[in-house]
Specification:
Distance between the termini: 31 Å
Number of helices: 12
Number of domains: 1
CATH class: Alpha Beta
């Protein structure tokens, strides 16, 4: 049996610029972080006692004999490209998550990366984080699936960290954001995530976004969002700012970025989201945005610590989630009957450059 733990992510700036249709013509960039909320995938290879050879448990329960019979497209694609069954084996796959799916935290990609990592570990293979990310991107965005979406979710799920990621010419480059311990803890404490409902399919939202307005209209705003990634990076890495000054500038820039993002297409926000966000601003938040493609899910805010009680009270009907940034990407947290060298390799830290 193998169990993997794969982080979800929050995106602060640049969402939408990580689409190949955009960054292969220009340059894409995002700034975000993996967080301490996870997708868990367990894969157990057992002796075959039943007629069916695969049991897959997620939001649904599937019993099938061949990978091609699975309804879950991602699991089907992974098992078709990574054969791990013989006629006498049974594969039991289960998923568990700290947060609901379709809420804007990259859950689909965390599942893809986590399952890939588990399948490799089952074979006693350690896979570098960057290679896990590349393979997850190929599974979700290429081949027969070609789900509409960007690349940042797979990179944060596989590699973790608080990073700026640059996309260009079908490649990505990770630039870790180095903050002092005090500034990092201050920024984490300034982040507030509220679950405001309205779960939705990211792929459907992104498809609608990329077809609602003209390409020129969309690209002008995406270019602005990309510029704001550089602005945010400069704020975070300016050693002359105190922690409170850094947070205020970062939060106000986040507000401006949300105004640009919501102008790309009409469905990115809605009256309910606007009303909740207005309450947060009135209570003292510097700025915020919806996580993911928009429409609902988690509202991410940046606020001064002294305003947290007022904001919490103003949004009391919504669940507040405390978060911390996570340095690790997907990793094996339990492995039985793996090659000893493979298990020890999973425990070694990986430096991403």
């Amino acid at each position: 049996m193998v169990i993997t733990q794969t982080p979800f992510r929050i995106g602060f700036f640049g969402g939408g610029t990580d689409f190949p249709d955009f960054f292969n013509q220009s340059r894409g960039a995002v700034l975000g972080a993996a967080i301490d909320k996870y997708m868990y995938v367990t894969v157990n290879s057992l002796a075959r006692f039943f007629e069916k050879r695969i049991r897959l448990s997620y939001a649904k329960l599937e019993y099938v004999n061949q990978p091609s019979q699975l309804e879950n497209e991602i699991a089907r694609r992974i098992l078709e490209t990574h054969p791990c069954l013989d006629e006498n084996s049974f594969l039991d796959i289960n998923t568990f998550a700290d947060l609901p799916g379709a809420s804007g935290v990259g859950s689909s990609s965390s599942f893809t990366v986590g399952m890939l990592n588990a399948i490799y570990a089952l074979h006693g293979i350690y896979r570098l984080p960057e290679l896990l990310a590349e393979e997850a991107i190929q599974i979700e965005r290429g081949g027969e699936l070609q789900k509409t979406g960007g690349w940042q979710d797979q990179v944060y799920a596989a590699c973790g960290g608080f990073n700026k990621i640059i996309f260009s010419q079908n490649r990505f480059h990770i630039e870790p954001i180095c903050l002092s311990y005090e500034k990092k803890r201050a920024l984490e404490s300034a982040c507030m995530m509220f679950f405001i409902g309205g779960l939705r399919s990211s792929a459907e939202m992104q498809t609608q976004t990329f077809h609602e307005n003209s390409k020129d209209h969309r690209n002008q705003r995406l270019e602005k969002l990309c510029e704001q990634v550089d602005d945010a990076f400069s704020i975070l890495t300016n050693s002359h700012y105190t922690a409170s000054e850094m947070i205020e500038r970062f939060g106000k820039l986040l507000h401006y970025a949300w105004e640009v993002k919501r102008s790309i297409a009409s469905h990115i926000s809605n009256p309910h989201v606007d009303a909740v966000y207005a309450k947060a601003l009135s209570a003292g938040a510097y700025g915020g945005k919806l996580c993911g493609a928009g429409g609902g899910g988690f509202l991410l805010l940046v606020a001064p610590p002294e305003k947290r009680p007022q904001i919490t009270q103003a949004l009391s009907e919504h669940k507040l989630l405390d978060i911390a940034f996570q340095e690790h990407g997907s990793r094996v947290i339990y492995s039985k009957s793996c090659h000893p060298q493979s298990v020890s390799a999973q425990l070694e830290p990986v430096l991403v450059t």
